[in-house]
Amino acid sequence: MGKSSKDKRDIYYRKAKEEGWRARSAFKLLQLDQQFHLFDGVQRVVDLCAAPGSWSQVLSRELFEKRGIEAGSGKTVAGSTFGGKVVTGESTAQKSSTMEKAKIVSVDLQPMAPIAGVTTIQADITHPQTLKMILDEFGGEPADFVCSDGAPDVTGLHDLDEYTQAQLILSALQLTTQLLRPGGNFVAKIFRGRDIDLMYFQLGLLFEQVTCAKPRSSRGSSLESFIVCQGYKPRSGWSPDLATGVMVNKELPLPISERVVAPFVACGDLSEYDSDATYTLPSGEGVRVSLDPVQSPTCPPYKRAVEMKRKN
Ligand code: SAM
Protein backbone atom coordinates (compact mmCIF):
# COMPACT_ATOMS: atom_id res chain seq x y z
CA MET A 1 0.00 0.00 0.00
CA GLY A 2 1.73 3.18 -1.15
CA LYS A 3 1.33 6.91 -0.85
CA SER A 4 -0.98 6.95 -3.82
CA SER A 5 -3.37 4.53 -2.12
CA LYS A 6 -3.52 6.73 0.99
CA ASP A 7 -4.16 9.70 -1.32
CA LYS A 8 -7.25 7.87 -2.55
CA ARG A 9 -8.50 6.73 0.83
CA ASP A 10 -7.92 10.01 2.61
CA ILE A 11 -8.83 13.10 0.65
CA TYR A 12 -7.70 15.44 3.45
CA TYR A 13 -4.27 13.78 3.56
CA ARG A 14 -3.93 14.50 -0.15
CA LYS A 15 -5.31 18.02 0.07
CA ALA A 16 -2.93 18.83 2.95
CA LYS A 17 0.06 18.01 0.79
CA GLU A 18 -1.35 19.93 -2.16
CA GLU A 19 -2.00 23.04 -0.07
CA GLY A 20 1.27 22.90 1.88
CA TRP A 21 -0.02 21.88 5.32
CA ARG A 22 2.21 19.65 7.45
CA ALA A 23 -0.73 17.50 8.56
CA ARG A 24 -4.37 16.96 7.61
CA SER A 25 -5.29 18.32 11.09
CA ALA A 26 -5.03 21.82 9.60
CA PHE A 27 -8.48 21.34 8.07
CA LYS A 28 -9.97 20.57 11.47
CA LEU A 29 -8.89 23.92 12.87
CA LEU A 30 -9.97 25.73 9.69
CA GLN A 31 -13.42 24.12 9.84
CA LEU A 32 -13.77 24.88 13.55
CA ASP A 33 -12.97 28.49 12.71
CA GLN A 34 -15.64 28.55 9.97
CA GLN A 35 -18.19 27.78 12.65
CA PHE A 36 -16.84 29.68 15.67
CA HIS A 37 -14.71 32.53 14.20
CA LEU A 38 -11.90 31.65 16.55
CA PHE A 39 -9.30 34.04 15.11
CA ASP A 40 -11.33 37.26 15.13
CA GLY A 41 -9.31 39.97 16.88
CA VAL A 42 -6.87 37.44 18.30
CA GLN A 43 -3.28 38.57 18.94
CA ARG A 44 -1.67 36.10 21.33
CA VAL A 45 -2.15 32.35 20.88
CA VAL A 46 -0.80 29.23 22.56
CA ASP A 47 -0.81 26.04 20.49
CA LEU A 48 -0.33 23.06 22.84
CA CYS A 49 0.77 19.67 21.50
CA ALA A 50 1.56 21.36 18.24
CA ALA A 51 3.95 19.08 16.28
CA PRO A 52 4.39 18.66 13.36
CA GLY A 53 2.78 22.09 13.23
CA SER A 54 -0.19 22.31 10.88
CA TRP A 55 -2.31 24.22 13.45
CA SER A 56 0.62 26.59 13.98
CA GLN A 57 0.79 27.04 10.19
CA VAL A 58 -2.90 27.96 10.16
CA LEU A 59 -2.36 30.39 13.06
CA SER A 60 0.67 31.96 11.37
CA ARG A 61 -1.38 32.47 8.21
CA GLU A 62 -4.30 33.99 10.12
CA LEU A 63 -2.35 36.28 12.45
CA PHE A 64 0.34 37.44 10.04
CA GLU A 65 -0.12 36.56 6.37
CA LYS A 66 -3.85 37.32 6.08
CA ARG A 67 -3.40 40.58 7.97
CA GLY A 68 -0.58 41.58 5.65
CA ILE A 69 2.05 41.38 8.38
CA GLU A 70 5.55 40.14 7.70
CA ALA A 71 6.08 37.24 10.11
CA GLY A 72 9.81 36.68 9.76
CA SER A 73 11.31 33.31 9.07
CA GLY A 74 11.15 31.80 12.56
CA LYS A 75 14.40 30.80 14.19
CA THR A 76 15.39 27.85 16.37
CA VAL A 77 17.70 28.27 19.32
CA ALA A 78 18.88 25.45 21.56
CA GLY A 79 18.36 25.95 25.27
CA SER A 80 18.45 23.62 28.24
CA THR A 81 16.00 22.68 30.94
CA PHE A 82 14.41 19.66 32.67
CA GLY A 83 14.78 16.25 31.17
CA GLY A 84 16.71 17.18 28.04
CA LYS A 85 16.73 19.59 25.22
CA VAL A 86 14.42 22.54 24.88
CA VAL A 87 14.29 24.34 21.60
CA THR A 88 12.80 27.74 21.16
CA GLY A 89 12.22 29.35 17.84
CA GLU A 90 11.91 33.08 17.95
CA SER A 91 9.76 35.10 15.64
CA THR A 92 10.98 38.32 14.18
CA ALA A 93 7.35 39.38 13.87
CA GLN A 94 7.42 41.08 17.25
CA LYS A 95 9.88 43.54 15.82
CA SER A 96 7.36 44.61 13.22
CA SER A 97 6.07 48.05 14.10
CA THR A 98 2.63 47.30 12.61
CA MET A 99 1.80 44.27 14.72
CA GLU A 100 3.77 44.45 17.91
CA LYS A 101 1.48 42.28 19.91
CA ALA A 102 0.88 39.29 17.61
CA LYS A 103 2.52 36.23 19.07
CA ILE A 104 2.15 32.48 18.60
CA VAL A 105 3.80 30.09 21.06
CA SER A 106 3.71 26.39 20.21
CA VAL A 107 4.63 23.59 22.60
CA ASP A 108 5.26 19.90 21.97
CA LEU A 109 7.31 17.01 23.32
CA GLN A 110 8.69 16.59 19.82
CA PRO A 111 10.96 19.11 18.10
CA MET A 112 9.24 21.17 15.40
CA ALA A 113 10.71 22.57 12.21
CA PRO A 114 10.45 26.41 12.27
CA ILE A 115 7.28 28.18 11.10
CA ALA A 116 7.16 31.86 10.19
CA GLY A 117 6.26 33.96 13.20
CA VAL A 118 5.97 31.02 15.61
CA THR A 119 7.99 30.49 18.79
CA THR A 120 8.32 26.77 19.45
CA ILE A 121 9.09 25.25 22.83
CA GLN A 122 9.99 21.59 23.13
CA ALA A 123 8.47 20.65 26.45
CA ASP A 124 5.96 18.44 28.23
CA ILE A 125 2.64 20.21 28.86
CA THR A 126 2.14 18.14 32.01
CA HIS A 127 5.39 19.49 33.52
CA PRO A 128 4.96 22.44 35.94
CA GLN A 129 7.88 24.40 34.46
CA THR A 130 6.24 24.58 31.05
CA LEU A 131 3.81 27.25 32.24
CA LYS A 132 6.65 29.58 33.18
CA MET A 133 8.33 29.07 29.83
CA ILE A 134 5.16 30.08 28.00
CA LEU A 135 4.49 33.03 30.31
CA ASP A 136 8.05 34.26 29.74
CA GLU A 137 7.42 34.31 25.99
CA PHE A 138 4.34 36.49 26.46
CA GLY A 139 6.15 38.86 28.80
CA GLY A 140 3.32 38.66 31.34
CA GLU A 141 0.50 39.36 28.85
CA PRO A 142 -2.40 36.85 28.81
CA ALA A 143 -3.32 34.83 25.71
CA ASP A 144 -6.51 35.45 23.70
CA PHE A 145 -6.79 31.89 22.49
CA VAL A 146 -5.37 28.53 23.61
CA CYS A 147 -5.75 25.38 21.56
CA SER A 148 -4.65 21.81 22.14
CA ASP A 149 -4.70 18.96 19.66
CA GLY A 150 -2.87 16.67 22.07
CA ALA A 151 -2.92 12.93 21.73
CA PRO A 152 -0.71 10.55 23.71
CA ASP A 153 0.97 7.54 22.10
CA VAL A 154 -1.68 4.84 22.01
CA THR A 155 -0.85 1.64 23.91
CA GLY A 156 -3.88 -0.34 22.77
CA LEU A 157 -4.97 -0.79 26.40
CA HIS A 158 -8.24 1.08 26.13
CA ASP A 159 -8.66 2.15 29.76
CA LEU A 160 -5.07 3.33 30.00
CA ASP A 161 -5.33 5.25 26.72
CA GLU A 162 -8.56 6.92 27.83
CA TYR A 163 -6.99 7.87 31.16
CA THR A 164 -3.83 9.31 29.55
CA GLN A 165 -5.89 11.34 27.10
CA ALA A 166 -8.01 12.70 29.96
CA GLN A 167 -4.86 13.70 31.85
CA LEU A 168 -3.53 15.50 28.78
CA ILE A 169 -6.75 17.52 28.43
CA LEU A 170 -6.62 18.30 32.13
CA SER A 171 -3.04 19.57 31.82
CA ALA A 172 -4.02 21.68 28.80
CA LEU A 173 -6.92 23.12 30.78
CA GLN A 174 -4.77 23.82 33.82
CA LEU A 175 -2.31 25.74 31.67
CA THR A 176 -5.21 27.54 30.04
CA THR A 177 -6.63 28.76 33.35
CA GLN A 178 -3.30 30.50 33.99
CA LEU A 179 -2.68 31.77 30.47
CA LEU A 180 -6.04 32.87 29.08
CA ARG A 181 -7.52 36.34 29.49
CA PRO A 182 -11.12 36.57 30.76
CA GLY A 183 -13.35 36.35 27.70
CA GLY A 184 -10.76 34.31 25.78
CA ASN A 185 -11.42 30.99 24.02
CA PHE A 186 -10.07 27.46 24.46
CA VAL A 187 -10.30 24.56 22.01
CA ALA A 188 -9.14 21.02 22.73
CA LYS A 189 -9.35 17.62 21.16
CA ILE A 190 -11.36 15.10 23.15
CA PHE A 191 -12.47 11.52 22.69
CA ARG A 192 -16.10 11.18 23.67
CA GLY A 193 -15.87 8.44 26.25
CA ARG A 194 -18.03 7.37 29.18
CA ASP A 195 -17.29 10.32 31.47
CA ILE A 196 -17.44 13.13 28.97
CA ASP A 197 -20.55 14.71 30.55
CA LEU A 198 -18.55 15.37 33.71
CA MET A 199 -15.96 17.24 31.69
CA TYR A 200 -18.62 19.40 29.97
CA PHE A 201 -20.03 20.20 33.38
CA GLN A 202 -16.67 21.23 34.78
CA LEU A 203 -15.82 23.29 31.71
CA GLY A 204 -19.19 24.97 31.95
CA LEU A 205 -18.09 26.42 35.28
CA LEU A 206 -15.14 28.13 33.63
CA PHE A 207 -16.59 29.26 30.27
CA GLU A 208 -19.73 31.07 29.10
CA GLN A 209 -20.39 28.56 26.33
CA VAL A 210 -19.14 25.00 25.85
CA THR A 211 -19.80 23.19 22.56
CA CYS A 212 -18.73 19.79 21.34
CA ALA A 213 -17.81 20.13 17.67
CA LYS A 214 -17.02 17.60 14.99
CA PRO A 215 -15.34 19.03 11.87
CA ARG A 216 -16.05 17.30 8.57
CA SER A 217 -12.36 16.47 8.21
CA SER A 218 -12.47 14.39 11.43
CA ARG A 219 -13.49 10.86 10.54
CA GLY A 220 -17.06 10.01 11.51
CA SER A 221 -15.84 6.57 12.52
CA SER A 222 -13.57 8.08 15.20
CA LEU A 223 -14.63 9.18 18.70
CA GLU A 224 -12.55 12.31 18.20
CA SER A 225 -14.24 15.67 18.52
CA PHE A 226 -13.31 19.09 19.86
CA ILE A 227 -14.55 21.05 22.83
CA VAL A 228 -14.91 24.68 21.94
CA CYS A 229 -15.01 26.74 25.13
CA GLN A 230 -15.89 30.39 24.58
CA GLY A 231 -15.72 33.28 27.01
CA TYR A 232 -13.36 32.33 29.85
CA LYS A 233 -14.93 33.47 33.14
CA PRO A 234 -12.69 32.71 36.12
CA ARG A 235 -14.82 33.00 39.24
CA SER A 236 -14.15 35.95 41.45
CA GLY A 237 -11.94 35.05 44.37
CA TRP A 238 -10.76 31.86 42.67
CA SER A 239 -7.11 31.67 41.75
CA PRO A 240 -6.18 28.75 39.53
CA ASP A 241 -3.25 26.79 40.77
CA LEU A 242 -1.22 24.11 38.98
CA ALA A 243 -0.38 22.23 42.17
CA THR A 244 -3.92 21.34 43.21
CA GLY A 245 -5.42 20.89 39.78
CA VAL A 246 -8.31 22.84 38.31
CA MET A 247 -10.92 20.14 38.83
CA VAL A 248 -10.15 19.38 42.47
CA ASN A 249 -9.53 22.89 43.69
CA LYS A 250 -11.73 23.26 46.75
CA GLU A 251 -12.42 26.87 45.94
CA LEU A 252 -14.02 25.95 42.61
CA PRO A 253 -17.47 24.76 43.70
CA LEU A 254 -19.38 22.28 41.59
CA PRO A 255 -23.04 23.18 42.16
CA ILE A 256 -25.35 20.64 40.55
CA SER A 257 -27.76 23.46 39.66
CA GLU A 258 -25.24 24.64 37.05
CA ARG A 259 -25.11 21.30 35.22
CA VAL A 260 -24.12 21.80 31.59
CA VAL A 261 -25.30 19.96 28.53
CA ALA A 262 -22.91 20.76 25.71
CA PRO A 263 -24.59 21.05 22.32
CA PHE A 264 -23.06 18.89 19.59
CA VAL A 265 -22.28 20.69 16.33
CA ALA A 266 -21.02 19.31 13.02
CA CYS A 267 -18.87 21.96 11.39
CA GLY A 268 -17.34 22.61 8.02
CA ASP A 269 -19.28 23.30 4.84
CA LEU A 270 -21.53 20.38 3.84
CA SER A 271 -20.20 20.67 0.32
CA GLU A 272 -16.71 19.91 1.60
CA TYR A 273 -15.15 16.47 1.30
CA ASP A 274 -16.33 13.63 3.52
CA SER A 275 -13.33 12.27 5.43
CA ASP A 276 -14.76 8.74 5.47
CA ALA A 277 -15.27 8.57 1.71
CA THR A 278 -12.86 7.28 -0.93
CA TYR A 279 -12.43 9.58 -3.92
CA THR A 280 -11.31 8.54 -7.36
CA LEU A 281 -8.08 10.16 -8.42
CA PRO A 282 -7.73 11.70 -11.86
CA SER A 283 -5.92 9.14 -13.99
CA GLY A 284 -3.75 9.15 -17.09
CA GLU A 285 -0.09 9.80 -17.60
CA GLY A 286 1.15 13.11 -16.27
CA VAL A 287 -2.24 14.00 -14.77
CA ARG A 288 -1.18 13.71 -11.17
CA VAL A 289 1.70 12.54 -9.02
CA SER A 290 1.60 11.56 -5.38
CA LEU A 291 3.28 14.36 -3.46
CA ASP A 292 5.71 13.89 -0.59
CA PRO A 293 4.65 15.09 2.88
CA VAL A 294 5.24 18.82 3.37
CA GLN A 295 7.47 18.29 6.42
CA SER A 296 9.18 14.99 7.26
CA PRO A 297 9.20 14.18 10.99
CA THR A 298 12.18 15.90 12.63
CA CYS A 299 12.66 13.17 15.22
CA PRO A 300 10.45 10.16 14.51
CA PRO A 301 10.30 7.33 17.06
CA TYR A 302 11.57 4.91 14.39
CA LYS A 303 14.67 7.03 13.65
CA ARG A 304 17.03 4.90 15.75
CA ALA A 305 15.74 1.66 14.22
CA VAL A 306 16.37 3.04 10.74
CA GLU A 307 19.92 4.07 11.72
CA MET A 308 20.63 0.64 13.24
CA LYS A 309 19.33 -1.09 10.14
CA ARG A 310 21.51 1.10 7.94
CA LYS A 311 24.56 0.11 10.02
CA ASN A 312 23.50 -3.52 9.79
N1 SAM B 1 -1.99 19.88 15.97
C1 SAM B 1 -0.84 19.18 15.42
C2 SAM B 1 -0.71 19.62 13.99
O1 SAM B 1 -1.61 20.24 13.48
O2 SAM B 1 0.33 19.35 13.38
C3 SAM B 1 -0.94 17.70 15.55
C4 SAM B 1 -0.84 17.24 16.98
S1 SAM B 1 -0.58 15.51 17.12
C5 SAM B 1 -2.15 14.85 16.72
C6 SAM B 1 -0.50 15.25 18.85
C7 SAM B 1 0.76 15.79 19.48
O3 SAM B 1 0.62 15.74 20.90
C8 SAM B 1 2.04 14.99 19.18
O4 SAM B 1 2.93 15.78 18.42
C9 SAM B 1 2.61 14.67 20.56
O5 SAM B 1 4.02 14.79 20.62
C10 SAM B 1 1.93 15.72 21.41
N2 SAM B 1 1.94 15.42 22.84
C11 SAM B 1 1.47 14.29 23.44
N3 SAM B 1 1.67 14.37 24.77
C12 SAM B 1 2.27 15.57 25.03
C13 SAM B 1 2.74 16.22 26.20
N4 SAM B 1 2.62 15.64 27.39
N5 SAM B 1 3.32 17.43 26.09
C14 SAM B 1 3.45 18.01 24.87
N6 SAM B 1 3.03 17.44 23.72
C15 SAM B 1 2.45 16.24 23.79
End-to-end gap: 26 Å
CATH superfamily: Vaccinia Virus protein VP39
Enumerate how many helices there are, as a single number: 8
Q: Can you write the helix and strand succession as a string? A: HHHEHEEEEHEHEHEEEH
Uncertain segments are 77-86, 88-99
Tell me what the structure shows.
Methylates the 2'-O-ribose of nucleotides at positions 32 and 34 of the tRNA anticodon loop of substrate tRNAs. It comes from Yarrowia lipolytica (strain CLIB 122 / E 150) (Yeast). Belongs to the class I-like SAM-binding methyltransferase superfamily. RNA methyltransferase RlmE family. TRM7 subfamily. The protein has 312 residues and is of the alpha/beta class. It has one domain: Vaccinia Virus protein VP39 (Rossmann fold, 3-Layer(aba) Sandwich), CATH 3.40.50.150. It is built from 8 helices and 10 strands. The strands form 2 sheets. It has an 8-stranded mixed sheet, sandwiched between helices. Strand 8 and strand 9 form a beta hairpin. Helix 1 crosses helix 2.
